[in-house]
Amino acid sequence: MFQFDKYVITDYGIFPKGKKEKDSTAPNNHEIALCEKWLYEFAQPQKRFNERFSSYALKHQVEKWAGEYVSNGALIFAALSLKFPIKVIDEGPNAIFGIKLFTPEEKWKHVRPTKFSKWLFKQKDNDNVIGDLARDAIIDKNWPRTAEYYIEFWEYLLSLGVHESVIDSLCTAWEEFTGQKAPNPSEKELERCELFYGGHVDIIRDGASYPNAPNGFTFIYVLFEEGKANKSKKVKYVGQTVAPVQRLQQHTISPGNREKVKWVGGLLNQDKEPLMAIIDCVPLDEAIYKERVYITAFIHYERQGETPYDQVLLNKSLL
Fold first, then answer.
1. pTM for this one?
2. Is 84 left (phi over 0), alpha (psi -120 to 50) or beta?
3. Fold of the domain built from segment(s) 187-318
4. Using an 8 Å Cβ cutoff, are 48 and 98 in contact?
5. What is the pLDDT of residues 211-244, one digit of tens each?
6. pLDDT value of residue 272
7. CATH 1.10.150: which residues of the chain?
8. Are residues 4 and 81 in contact, defined by beta-carbon separation less than 8 angstroms?
Protein backbone atom coordinates (compact mmCIF):
# COMPACT_ATOMS: atom_id res chain seq x y z
CA MET A 1 0.00 0.00 0.00
CA PHE A 2 0.97 3.65 -0.43
CA GLN A 3 0.53 6.25 2.31
CA PHE A 4 -1.28 9.47 1.38
CA ASP A 5 -2.19 12.12 3.95
CA LYS A 6 -4.79 10.44 6.20
CA TYR A 7 -5.43 7.72 3.62
CA VAL A 8 -3.73 4.66 2.23
CA ILE A 9 -3.92 3.53 -1.40
CA THR A 10 -4.02 -0.13 -2.29
CA ASP A 11 -4.65 -2.00 -5.49
CA TYR A 12 -8.34 -2.02 -4.58
CA GLY A 13 -8.69 1.72 -3.94
CA ILE A 14 -8.29 4.41 -1.28
CA PHE A 15 -9.17 4.05 2.42
CA PRO A 16 -8.82 6.02 5.68
CA LYS A 17 -5.77 5.01 7.68
CA GLY A 18 -6.60 2.42 10.29
CA LYS A 19 -9.55 1.00 8.35
CA LYS A 20 -9.25 -2.68 7.60
CA GLU A 21 -8.51 -2.72 3.92
CA LYS A 22 -9.87 -5.43 1.63
CA ASP A 23 -6.42 -5.75 0.02
CA SER A 24 -3.10 -4.30 1.14
CA THR A 25 -1.34 -4.86 -2.21
CA ALA A 26 0.22 -1.69 -3.59
CA PRO A 27 -0.87 -0.52 -7.08
CA ASN A 28 1.22 -1.88 -9.95
CA ASN A 29 3.77 0.58 -11.38
CA HIS A 30 2.99 -0.37 -15.00
CA GLU A 31 -0.71 0.26 -14.42
CA ILE A 32 0.06 3.59 -12.77
CA ALA A 33 2.13 4.61 -15.79
CA LEU A 34 -0.75 3.73 -18.14
CA CYS A 35 -3.15 5.79 -16.05
CA GLU A 36 -0.76 8.75 -16.00
CA LYS A 37 -0.40 8.59 -19.79
CA TRP A 38 -4.18 8.52 -20.23
CA LEU A 39 -4.65 11.45 -17.85
CA TYR A 40 -1.98 13.47 -19.65
CA GLU A 41 -3.75 12.97 -22.96
CA PHE A 42 -7.43 13.14 -22.02
CA ALA A 43 -7.78 15.14 -18.79
CA GLN A 44 -6.66 18.22 -16.93
CA PRO A 45 -7.09 19.36 -13.32
CA GLN A 46 -9.81 21.82 -12.34
CA LYS A 47 -11.12 23.17 -9.01
CA ARG A 48 -14.69 21.90 -9.45
CA PHE A 49 -15.15 18.22 -8.62
CA ASN A 50 -16.54 16.07 -11.42
CA GLU A 51 -19.17 13.90 -9.76
CA ARG A 52 -20.13 12.14 -13.00
CA PHE A 53 -17.03 9.96 -13.03
CA SER A 54 -15.70 8.11 -10.01
CA SER A 55 -12.20 6.66 -9.96
CA TYR A 56 -13.73 3.26 -10.73
CA ALA A 57 -15.51 4.62 -13.82
CA LEU A 58 -12.35 6.35 -14.99
CA LYS A 59 -10.23 3.25 -14.58
CA HIS A 60 -12.58 1.46 -16.99
CA GLN A 61 -12.01 4.22 -19.55
CA VAL A 62 -8.26 3.70 -19.20
CA GLU A 63 -8.72 -0.04 -19.73
CA LYS A 64 -10.75 0.53 -22.89
CA TRP A 65 -8.04 2.84 -24.22
CA ALA A 66 -5.07 0.70 -23.18
CA GLY A 67 -6.62 -2.68 -23.96
CA GLU A 68 -5.52 -4.09 -20.62
CA TYR A 69 -6.44 -4.16 -16.94
CA VAL A 70 -5.63 -1.34 -14.52
CA SER A 71 -6.66 -1.21 -10.89
CA ASN A 72 -8.79 1.40 -9.15
CA GLY A 73 -5.84 2.17 -6.89
CA ALA A 74 -3.51 2.70 -9.87
CA LEU A 75 -5.89 5.30 -11.30
CA ILE A 76 -6.19 7.08 -7.95
CA PHE A 77 -2.44 7.11 -7.37
CA ALA A 78 -1.78 8.40 -10.91
CA ALA A 79 -4.31 11.21 -10.47
CA LEU A 80 -2.76 12.25 -7.16
CA SER A 81 0.75 12.19 -8.62
CA LEU A 82 -0.45 14.59 -11.33
CA LYS A 83 -1.97 16.95 -8.72
CA PHE A 84 -5.66 16.35 -9.45
CA PRO A 85 -7.81 17.50 -6.48
CA ILE A 86 -9.36 14.45 -4.77
CA LYS A 87 -12.38 13.74 -2.61
CA VAL A 88 -12.83 10.26 -1.17
CA ILE A 89 -16.37 8.88 -1.45
CA ASP A 90 -17.61 7.83 1.99
CA GLU A 91 -14.69 5.78 3.36
CA GLY A 92 -13.48 4.37 0.06
CA PRO A 93 -12.54 2.58 -2.02
CA ASN A 94 -13.58 5.11 -4.68
CA ALA A 95 -12.92 8.81 -5.12
CA ILE A 96 -13.89 11.69 -7.35
CA PHE A 97 -11.55 14.33 -8.72
CA GLY A 98 -11.37 17.91 -9.82
CA ILE A 99 -11.00 16.78 -13.39
CA LYS A 100 -11.98 18.03 -16.83
CA LEU A 101 -12.19 15.21 -19.35
CA PHE A 102 -11.40 15.12 -23.03
CA THR A 103 -12.28 11.50 -23.67
CA PRO A 104 -11.21 9.81 -26.93
CA GLU A 105 -14.84 9.87 -28.08
CA GLU A 106 -15.22 13.59 -27.42
CA LYS A 107 -11.70 14.89 -27.91
CA TRP A 108 -12.64 16.25 -31.34
CA LYS A 109 -14.97 18.75 -29.64
CA HIS A 110 -11.97 20.44 -28.06
CA VAL A 111 -9.88 20.80 -31.24
CA ARG A 112 -9.86 24.52 -31.95
CA PRO A 113 -10.65 25.29 -35.59
CA THR A 114 -8.07 27.34 -37.44
CA LYS A 115 -8.03 29.48 -40.59
CA PHE A 116 -10.83 28.40 -42.95
CA SER A 117 -12.68 26.27 -40.39
CA LYS A 118 -12.48 29.04 -37.79
CA TRP A 119 -14.05 31.45 -40.28
CA LEU A 120 -16.60 28.88 -41.46
CA PHE A 121 -17.86 28.03 -37.97
CA LYS A 122 -18.61 31.71 -37.39
CA GLN A 123 -21.07 31.56 -40.31
CA LYS A 124 -23.28 29.00 -38.56
CA ASP A 125 -26.18 31.43 -38.11
CA ASN A 126 -26.29 32.41 -41.78
CA ASP A 127 -29.43 31.40 -43.64
CA ASN A 128 -27.63 30.26 -46.80
CA VAL A 129 -25.54 27.40 -48.18
CA ILE A 130 -22.48 28.57 -46.23
CA GLY A 131 -24.47 28.47 -42.99
CA ASP A 132 -25.71 24.98 -43.86
CA LEU A 133 -22.15 23.78 -44.45
CA ALA A 134 -20.97 25.43 -41.22
CA ARG A 135 -23.66 23.74 -39.11
CA ASP A 136 -22.86 20.34 -40.58
CA ALA A 137 -19.11 20.83 -40.13
CA ILE A 138 -19.40 21.90 -36.49
CA ILE A 139 -21.09 18.64 -35.43
CA ASP A 140 -18.88 16.44 -37.64
CA LYS A 141 -16.22 14.88 -35.43
CA ASN A 142 -14.01 14.11 -38.44
CA TRP A 143 -14.14 17.54 -40.08
CA PRO A 144 -10.52 18.68 -40.77
CA ARG A 145 -10.65 21.54 -38.27
CA THR A 146 -6.99 22.55 -38.54
CA ALA A 147 -6.56 21.99 -42.29
CA GLU A 148 -5.09 24.78 -44.39
CA TYR A 149 -5.61 23.97 -48.07
CA TYR A 150 -8.77 23.65 -50.14
CA ILE A 151 -7.81 20.14 -51.23
CA GLU A 152 -8.07 18.84 -47.66
CA PHE A 153 -11.69 19.90 -47.32
CA TRP A 154 -12.55 18.82 -50.88
CA GLU A 155 -11.03 15.37 -50.43
CA TYR A 156 -12.76 14.93 -47.09
CA LEU A 157 -16.17 15.65 -48.62
CA LEU A 158 -15.37 13.35 -51.54
CA SER A 159 -14.59 10.56 -49.06
CA LEU A 160 -18.11 10.95 -47.66
CA GLY A 161 -19.67 10.58 -51.10
CA VAL A 162 -21.61 13.83 -50.72
CA HIS A 163 -23.86 15.28 -53.39
CA GLU A 164 -22.15 17.73 -55.76
CA SER A 165 -24.25 20.53 -54.25
CA VAL A 166 -22.23 20.16 -51.03
CA ILE A 167 -19.00 20.59 -53.01
CA ASP A 168 -20.57 23.68 -54.59
CA SER A 169 -21.24 25.02 -51.07
CA LEU A 170 -17.62 24.43 -50.14
CA CYS A 171 -16.52 26.34 -53.27
CA THR A 172 -18.81 29.25 -52.38
CA ALA A 173 -17.49 29.35 -48.81
CA TRP A 174 -13.86 29.09 -49.90
CA GLU A 175 -14.26 31.91 -52.40
CA GLU A 176 -15.84 34.18 -49.79
CA PHE A 177 -13.09 33.32 -47.30
CA THR A 178 -10.11 33.75 -49.63
CA GLY A 179 -11.44 36.19 -52.22
CA GLN A 180 -10.29 33.75 -54.89
CA LYS A 181 -12.10 31.15 -56.94
CA ALA A 182 -11.81 27.72 -55.33
CA PRO A 183 -9.35 25.44 -57.18
CA ASN A 184 -12.00 22.78 -57.63
CA PRO A 185 -11.27 20.22 -60.40
CA SER A 186 -14.14 19.56 -62.78
CA GLU A 187 -14.85 16.19 -64.39
CA LYS A 188 -13.02 17.37 -67.49
CA GLU A 189 -9.87 18.22 -65.58
CA LEU A 190 -9.92 14.97 -63.65
CA GLU A 191 -10.32 13.12 -66.95
CA ARG A 192 -7.27 14.95 -68.35
CA CYS A 193 -5.27 13.73 -65.36
CA GLU A 194 -6.42 10.17 -65.98
CA LEU A 195 -5.38 10.45 -69.63
CA PHE A 196 -1.89 11.37 -68.43
CA TYR A 197 -1.60 8.33 -66.18
CA GLY A 198 -2.98 6.18 -68.98
CA GLY A 199 -0.29 7.39 -71.38
CA HIS A 200 -2.64 9.27 -73.71
CA VAL A 201 -1.09 12.76 -73.68
CA ASP A 202 1.86 14.33 -75.48
CA ILE A 203 5.24 13.68 -73.82
CA ILE A 204 8.20 15.99 -74.43
CA ARG A 205 11.82 15.02 -73.78
CA ASP A 206 14.81 17.35 -73.69
CA GLY A 207 15.88 18.14 -77.26
CA ALA A 208 12.54 17.23 -78.83
CA SER A 209 10.40 19.65 -80.84
CA TYR A 210 6.89 20.78 -80.01
CA PRO A 211 4.80 23.74 -81.23
CA ASN A 212 4.11 26.76 -79.07
CA ALA A 213 0.60 27.36 -77.76
CA PRO A 214 -1.85 29.15 -80.09
CA ASN A 215 -2.18 32.91 -79.68
CA GLY A 216 -4.18 33.77 -76.58
CA PHE A 217 -3.65 30.33 -75.05
CA THR A 218 -1.11 28.54 -72.85
CA PHE A 219 -0.36 24.93 -72.03
CA ILE A 220 -0.82 23.35 -68.62
CA TYR A 221 1.97 20.81 -68.20
CA VAL A 222 3.49 18.51 -65.62
CA LEU A 223 7.06 17.50 -64.95
CA PHE A 224 7.34 13.87 -63.97
CA GLU A 225 9.69 10.94 -63.72
CA GLU A 226 9.14 7.40 -64.87
CA GLY A 227 9.39 4.59 -62.37
CA LYS A 228 10.90 1.21 -63.11
CA ALA A 229 7.73 -0.77 -62.50
CA ASN A 230 5.45 -0.83 -65.54
CA LYS A 231 6.59 2.63 -66.63
CA SER A 232 4.79 4.20 -63.67
CA LYS A 233 4.72 7.99 -63.51
CA LYS A 234 5.33 10.27 -60.55
CA VAL A 235 4.29 13.89 -61.01
CA LYS A 236 6.54 16.42 -59.28
CA TYR A 237 5.53 19.77 -60.73
CA VAL A 238 2.55 21.44 -62.42
CA GLY A 239 3.04 24.58 -64.47
CA GLN A 240 1.95 26.67 -67.45
CA THR A 241 3.87 27.77 -70.52
CA VAL A 242 3.34 28.98 -74.07
CA ALA A 243 6.68 27.49 -75.17
CA PRO A 244 7.04 23.92 -73.81
CA VAL A 245 10.44 23.07 -75.34
CA GLN A 246 12.15 26.18 -73.97
CA ARG A 247 10.46 25.75 -70.59
CA LEU A 248 11.66 22.15 -70.27
CA GLN A 249 15.21 23.27 -71.04
CA GLN A 250 14.94 25.93 -68.33
CA HIS A 251 13.76 23.34 -65.80
CA THR A 252 16.74 21.12 -66.65
CA ILE A 253 19.47 23.79 -66.84
CA SER A 254 18.20 26.08 -64.06
CA PRO A 255 15.71 24.14 -61.92
CA GLY A 256 14.95 26.98 -59.50
CA ASN A 257 14.17 26.33 -55.82
CA ARG A 258 16.15 23.95 -53.65
CA GLU A 259 13.63 21.12 -53.81
CA LYS A 260 13.50 21.20 -57.59
CA VAL A 261 17.31 21.41 -57.87
CA LYS A 262 17.58 18.36 -55.64
CA TRP A 263 15.02 16.42 -57.67
CA VAL A 264 16.38 17.31 -61.12
CA GLY A 265 19.95 16.81 -59.96
CA GLY A 266 19.09 13.41 -58.58
CA LEU A 267 17.60 12.36 -61.91
CA LEU A 268 20.61 13.60 -63.89
CA ASN A 269 22.97 11.72 -61.58
CA GLN A 270 21.08 8.56 -62.52
CA ASP A 271 21.35 9.37 -66.24
CA LYS A 272 17.64 10.17 -66.24
CA GLU A 273 15.84 13.40 -66.99
CA PRO A 274 12.64 15.18 -66.06
CA LEU A 275 9.91 14.58 -68.62
CA MET A 276 7.18 17.01 -69.60
CA ALA A 277 3.58 16.06 -70.41
CA ILE A 278 1.10 18.46 -71.98
CA ILE A 279 -2.13 18.20 -70.01
CA ASP A 280 -4.36 20.96 -71.33
CA CYS A 281 -4.48 24.11 -73.44
CA VAL A 282 -6.33 26.95 -71.76
CA PRO A 283 -6.98 30.67 -72.40
CA LEU A 284 -4.25 32.92 -71.03
CA ASP A 285 -6.69 34.79 -68.79
CA GLU A 286 -7.54 31.50 -67.05
CA ALA A 287 -3.98 30.22 -66.78
CA ILE A 288 -3.25 30.97 -63.11
CA TYR A 289 -6.57 29.57 -61.95
CA LYS A 290 -6.28 26.45 -64.12
CA GLU A 291 -2.76 25.85 -62.84
CA ARG A 292 -4.07 25.84 -59.27
CA VAL A 293 -6.93 23.53 -60.25
CA TYR A 294 -4.54 21.02 -61.83
CA ILE A 295 -2.23 21.19 -58.81
CA THR A 296 -5.20 20.17 -56.69
CA ALA A 297 -6.14 17.41 -59.12
CA PHE A 298 -2.64 15.94 -59.39
CA ILE A 299 -2.04 16.04 -55.64
CA HIS A 300 -5.31 14.14 -55.32
CA TYR A 301 -4.16 11.45 -57.74
CA GLU A 302 -0.61 11.25 -56.39
CA ARG A 303 -1.97 10.85 -52.87
CA GLN A 304 -3.67 7.61 -53.82
CA GLY A 305 -0.39 6.02 -52.73
CA GLU A 306 -0.90 7.51 -49.23
CA THR A 307 1.83 10.12 -49.71
CA PRO A 308 1.12 13.20 -47.55
CA TYR A 309 -0.11 16.10 -49.68
CA ASP A 310 2.82 18.31 -48.65
CA GLN A 311 5.33 15.79 -50.02
CA VAL A 312 3.82 15.43 -53.49
CA LEU A 313 4.44 18.52 -55.62
CA LEU A 314 7.32 20.94 -55.67
CA ASN A 315 5.02 23.93 -56.26
CA LYS A 316 2.31 23.05 -53.75
CA SER A 317 2.65 26.56 -52.31
CA LEU A 318 0.37 27.78 -55.10
CA LEU A 319 -2.53 26.10 -53.31
1. 0.71
2. beta
3. GIY-YIG endonuclease (3.40.1440)
4. yes
5. 999 999 999 999 998 876 556 888 999 999 999 9
6. 87
7. 111-178
8. no
